Structure formats: C-alpha cells, structure tokens
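Weekly modeling sync, notes
Attendees: S.R. (lead), two postdocs, one rotation student

Agenda item 3: backlog of single-chain predictions. S.R. asked that every request posted to the team notebook include the full sequence so nobody has to chase files. The rotation student volunteered to paste the first one in as an example of the format we agreed on. Action items at the bottom.

Example entry:
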Amino acid sequence: MINEGDKGALVEEWVELANGCICCTVKHSLVQALEQLVQRKERLDHILLETTGLANPAPLASVLWLDEQLESEVKLDSIVTVVDAKNLRFQLDEHRGSSSFPEAYFQIAFADIIILNKVDLVSVESSGALEELEVEIHNINSLAEIIHSVRCQVDLSKILNRQAYDTARATQLEALLEESRSLSTKKLHDSDVRTICICETRMINLDKTRIWLEEILWEKKYDMDVYRCKGVLSVQNSDQLHTLQAVKELYEIVPSRKWEKEEKRINKIVFIGHNLKEDILINSFRDRATC
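Predicted structure, as returned to the notebook:
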C-alpha cells in the first residue's frame, strides 16, 4: 500500500500474508489482511490487489465476493486484466485446440475490464489488427469492457468504482447482456473458452432455476466448466426483475427492481466458460427451470 507521507513523499506500507501469494493463501489470511488495512486507516477509497501474471483470479474473486466477514466494509468491485496486445495472439494460438488452457484464457474470461496495452506497437503493423484482437477477446468474454492503453496509462475513473458485482445495478447489467447477445460466439468449437447467451420468454420457477444452476455449477452435470455467469430473470409470481451472478461454484440471485408496466419480461443469461454446449443450456433451462 502506497500512502502520502510527510511533505508529499510516497511511503510504502506492507501487510504480510502467511503464504505469500494472495491467490494461493488460505482464505482467512487474506480476509485478516484486508481487515488490518481497514482498521489502520480512517478512510480507504479503494484497495487494489495485484496478482502475479500467472494467477487464476477465480479463487480470489470467490473469497471477496460473498464473504460475510467482509460484507460490511470491503466489497469486490471488479476484476481488471492487462492484456499484452503485441503477444496475445501468440499466447492464445499456442494452446488453441488443446485440452489445457494457459492463464491468459482464465484472466480474460474472469475480467470485467480488460486493458489492452501496447496498442501503439500493434496499430503500426497493420490496419485492422486491433479490431481483430478485440474480436478475439470478446470471443472469450463478450461481457468485458476493453480499454486501449500505451504503457498502461489509463484514466482511473474507468477502472475504479465500476460496481461490477453490485446486483442492485440492474440497468448496467441489462445493457451488458443486450450487447453480449449479439456477441455470443456461436462460430467457435464447443471445446473452446467462449461466451454463450441464452434467452427465454417464459417465466421461471426460482427454486427449479436454483436446482438447474447447481447441477451445472456444482455437479458439472453436462460436463461444462462455467467460469462466469450473469443474467436477468423473470420470476413467476414476482413483479421484481431478479439478477443472477456466478463465479465458478458460487452464485447469487436477488431481486433488484420492479419490472416496468410496458417492459417485455424476458430471461437472459450469459455463460463464459470451457466446453459450453449451447443447445444443452437452452433446452435444459427451458425444460428444468421455466413454468
């Protein structure tokens, strides 16, 4: 943590974790470290946790998102991934078609915001190269916002206080889902890491939907590995629009606002993951969750 000390000098302060890496440390060590930060400072605007370049962000997101010990003071705002525009394609092509995926896939798949860095080195090589990279990224994660940068110079307002995990911000989530619907990556092979958006006009039974989700996320019933999931739900016997968020096995469904009188009620769910099967997702949701 870097603070402003005497006469404007920057002073580094450290909170030590028992096992070193914040992605590998046991859960309570990370929680305790963050609580120490909160207790030592009268006011904290943001806490930035920087993982190593080889880290899978899923365990960290799971700890911070729904941890009851942190609920009142610290909340997960968003996951930001820095992508090397110069070398991304090489990293992805090297493992394309393989049963194993490099960390680049995971870091893109779990990201809410992607900083596409070194764009100056790509744009001079060929026209359309950056657009192709953006398509490549959105093929993996169509929900992520892409920000161009040179030497990682980014307006902080674009990456802080994004409230990506705030289920009450239904309007923002609906806009993301509407855009993602057109970006659903149907052209990719089922075994790739990709995005799928499913829609259903019939209302859902909330209990049945939870069972359906748990079969997919917990039991891996259809042999699909879901990394992220976001959606809006039209629930039977409720005038509330419900929002869905999931990170790996953890998920949350909560009411967020009332449906408008003239609004078309519809279910939209975006899945990001590996070995996703679109037909199975559509048909199983329709058969198992709807009324």
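Discussion: group reviewed the output briefly. The chain has three domains: 1-75, 77-164, 170-287.
Action items: rotation student to repeat for the remaining queue; S.R. to check formatting next week.
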